[in-house]
Amino acid sequence: MKVGVIGASGFVGGELLRLIINHPEVELSFATSRQYDGQFLYKIHPNLKGFTDVKFSLFDSSKVADQCDLLFTAVPHGSSYEFMNELVNSGVKIVDLSADYRLSNPDMYDKWYGFTHPLPDLLNSFTFGLPELHRDSIKSSKFTSTPGCTALTSILALAPLIQNKIIDSNNIIIDSKVGSSGAGVKPTIGSHHANRYGVIRPFKPYAHRHTAEIDQELSNLSENSVNVSLSVHSVNLVRGILCTSYASIDSDITEVEVWKAYRKFYSDSPFIRFIGDKKGLYRYPDPKLLIGSNFCDIGFAYDKSASRLVVMSSSDNLIKGAAGTAIQNMNLMSGFDETIGLWTPGIHPM
Ligand SMILES: NC(=O)c1ccc[n+]([C@@H]2O[C@H](COP(=O)([O-])OP(=O)(O)OC[C@H]3O[C@@H](n4cnc5c(N)ncnc54)[C@H](OP(=O)(O)O)[C@@H]3O)[C@@H](O)[C@H]2O)c1
Predict the structure, then answer these.
(1) pTM higher than 0.85 for the full model?
(2) Could you point out which of 30, 108, 141, 287 has its C-alpha 20 to 30 Å from the C-alpha of 257?
(3) Mean pLDDT within 3-29
């Protein structure tokens, strides 16, 4: 199967290329960049040297159908509107990685992104590309929209608790820490090394855009209203996300029963791991152990005296939080085993 990548010079694009090149069932047909047209991929992604002789090219939407069977679009939000109508009619499958097709209600773009969605009719054509929640729909989809990294890591922690009515869905707090690659390759004043190094910077204490995806997905699992407060902090990592979620329990459910609910919910999900050791260093999820892997690790502490669950979930924002889940979606959309090209642990020590 031939695949192409738009936005291939970016951080997510680079990881997509790395995973595609090593995937036994697919061949990289093209990789687009406006800045690096004509240059070898390894000039920008030096880790790929020796693995491919494909060069960056300019994107031409009229040629896509002849060049590939499936296309990854890894461009910033708002960048694909001018060509997406043409692409969805081209016959190729699409795995989008931006926020542009994640929300099914177009009004949410006015509310969370501050603009009116120019292609509202397309929103229902895209399946929310979170395999752990929508595996069967993804299998039969032509178009999927990969979740945001913080949204994905939060939703995976909370979905079993919401579906099983274990926590009060109306009062959930998510505290998230994210590495610098989450903001993409384009330098900003905030990403300047002198300003970024060593920080624990409250980046968005409330009203982060990923709240919209979390609300959407958790609400679909709940009969009650869902109210989530998400705070995002920039921390001194290049990669990695740790989401710590706080939620109240008003039943006498036991810790063992909470674990059972998690295990049942994710019984068919190879990339979810549970971290629950009582002793030692690795008692809770740790993003450092997930670098380069497609796993999302989940664990929790049960604070009985406060009737509260403190749930930790972790992922590599560029892999499970982006390129890895996109490949997982491609695998499902193409009838491949879900884990092909992704079954590798993180690097340790890092
Ligand atoms: N970084 C993460 O952790 C992460 C996680 C989940 C989802 N995402 C989403 O994935 C997408 C890519 O993220 P990223 O971090 O890889 O971004 P990035 O590093 O900024 O890369 C995006 C690439 O897209 C190209 N591009 C930018 N504007 C464009 C435009 N108007 N038209 C066509 N191409 C354009 C640029 O390449 P040229 O200038 O060379 O053409 C750029 O290298 C974004 O929508 C982001 O929100 C990112």
Answers:
(1) yes
(2) 287
(3) 98
